[in-house]
Amino acid sequence: MNNSSNREVQYWKQFQHALVTHADKGDLDALRAVNRKLVNALIKRGQPRNHAELVARQELAQCHQAIIHRLQQDKDQLAETMQSFRASQDGLNAYAMTALSSESALSSQSAQSPDATVTTKPEQPQPQRQGQGYSSPYGN
Questions:
Q1: What pTM does this model have?
Q2: Which segments show compositional bias classed as Polar residues (predicted)?
């Protein structure tokens, strides 16, 4: 493999490395930027000039597809998580509304129906014992 061919292979390997690095970090902005540069480079370079460059581009394409597949899986998993969250939030909100409406119904029922309220006996005054119960504000 000559120097020119080796440089081309390394050029495509750098794209592959950048895609993997940014995908692993979850840096979608950097991943998009590399993807745009990759598209432009493929358009500018045209067809591979030799077998080594063809193999490097094929490996890059496989890497690119694997990253797209992984990102799609992450997106689907996030959508499931969000749906589950929404469903549990809806359930929690419905429960809260039920609890509030039950409390409201009980308090309005109590106000309308005196026999529904619990009554307690008024507290009976306890007889005072000698020296207890009265204290003078003057210390006597």
A1: 0.60
A2: 114-123
